[in-house]
Design goal:
Chain lengths: 305, 305
């Protein structure tokens, strides 16, 4: 996966942290590491050291393609959540080494079968996609900033990937279509085989040419820090897919289980600040919550098993 | 059921109607009529005649308790929906005969086993609840207006019912609790055995003391008129429950199927203006969409059956 490695400062109604390891690359990698081998690529500065690397190594994430930029400063984000935890209010963004990042990937990375292009500039995403000659399954995330400033490039990039992960509001914005189902079909027309519409506290929906699937979010009474939920979702989703071998992305049952593992990982991510909850997570807890999802979605009142 | 009988004028991006039969009583009764015998109570004016009654009689709804107020005018509502169909903008409301409505119910109505108190003033809802001595299952709907102007009365009324149907935003507003699950638990503490949180395009959630269930909305590409969706939902829900005999409200599997029938009826309701789609609906179409819900929610990719 290629994305941002960051330090985050977050304030929510449940507390605050001045400086935590964060960024899409970190949240995705930690989540995916429970399912498959993960290599992470992205730039860091002089303020990124062994302590931060250790968080990734604890979970077996390969960091050989993390690029240390001499004299640079790691990407920094400061945000605040109100009582309504759905919206992050950005208070400060310092791009640092991310300002002129150009991806350099080892052959081990370009040979990866499954690739995730986290939310970075779409030209960069397309460049990485081009480098990854071994990939047979590529997922992409994006955001309103790129829809507004680089729409044509984003559409072109979407045309070269298999899976698109975006918020439902972003899917509507990208297609200028208020109905989510119609909007997702327009994104499918750009090329991908599946669209994952992230819906925050309402869960997520999966739209393919033939089928529709929707999953509620896990019913948490306390959400401490939503930062990274989308990347944890993508990590659980693609991590599970990668573990299921060739052709998994064409199997609706596998995709639906991937949606569920994604939701499980996102739900744990938001239970505590930054990576705190996922760092102490176990595979048994993941499987337990997967079973709970079977229970809370079963119309007949008993899990499908 | 007791609620409003109305004439609605609606404009949406898909057209407009100047004067349609509407109101919570009408939408609820038509939906419930596919599952059980329905009696409707509420006031109408001189402008309400045989043509309007025929819409209810076509579906076998008993209208003996519809009260004709001499010289009065039927409740009138004019609203408009933007491209985002989630919010109704009210342009005109004329209470008419609803201004000083005092429910008078026949013994057939007070003996009903299942009662729905649609969104009317909570003092009136409690008065009806008191009259319905035969009821062993009572559902209630409400809205932000009563939370803001009659909160204490609403809380008291909720204490005397079994099921609460409210929008998720209203459940949060009533309890001053931003987290929906925590908010729903606070409403459970007021007395009901189950809370149905309506979530518009995201579906609905069912919260009881022991369990949680959530169901997406049916994936419609075209929503023409959302007016009455909530009442159609409640009609399908309570209609199914009423058809399942004593103790049905305590059976999680029955409640979940009721959620699904409610979602089916709401989805058909919004496909066309006012009552137009539900009037030409068949039981076969209802059962077909119920099966589709099993499909779109099945995590394992095949319906639970």
């Amino acid at each position: 996966m290629v994305g941002s490695i960051a330090f985050d400062a977050v304030t929510s109604p449940f507390g605050s942290r001045d400086r935590m390891l964060g960024g899409s690359a970190v949240h995705f990698s930690l989540a995916a590491s429970f399912f498959t081998d993960v290599r992470v690529a992205g730039p860091v500065g002089d303020d990124f050291g062994d302590e931060e690397l250790a968080v990734l190594h604890e979970r077996g994430v390969n960091t050989d393609d993390i690029e240390h930029v001499e004299g640079g400063q790691t990407f920094f984000w400061r945000g605040r959540y109100e009582y309504d935890l759905n919206t992050a209010h950005t208070e400060d963004t310092q791009l640092g080494v991310f300002g002129d990042f150009s991806p350099k990937l080892s052959s081990a990375s370009t040979g990866a079968e499954t690739v995730f292009l986290a939310n970075i500039q779409p030209d960069l995403q397309r460049e990485v996609r081009g480098l990854c000659t071994g990939a047979d399954l590529v997922g992409l995330d994006s955001m309103n900033l790129w829809i507004e400033t680089a729409r044509d490039s984003l559409v072109k990039t979407i045309g070269g990937v298999d899976l698109v992960f975006m918020n439902d509001a972003e899917i509507r914005q990208l297609t200028e279509e208020p109905n989510l189902i119609a909007a997702a079909r327009k994104v499918l027309d750009m090329g991908p085989r599946a669209i994952v519409a992230k819906q925050g506290e309402y869960g997520a929906a999966l739209v393919t040419a033939e089928r529709f699937f929707a999953l509620p979010a896990y019913p948490l009474e306390t959400v401490r820090d939503p930062t990274g939920a989308g990347d944890s979702f993508a990590g659980g989703f693609l991590g599970h897919l990668a573990s299921q071998g060739d052709g998994a992305a064409g199997d609706e049952a596998v995709l639906r289980r991937a949606m569920t593992y994604g939701s499980v990982m996102a739900s744990y991510n938001v239970e505590d600040f930054g990576t705190e909850r996922v760092r102490r997570l176990t595979r048994e807890e993941i499987d337990g919550r997967f079973e709970e999802f079977l229970d809370i979605t079963a119309i007949e009142g008993v899990p499908a098993g």
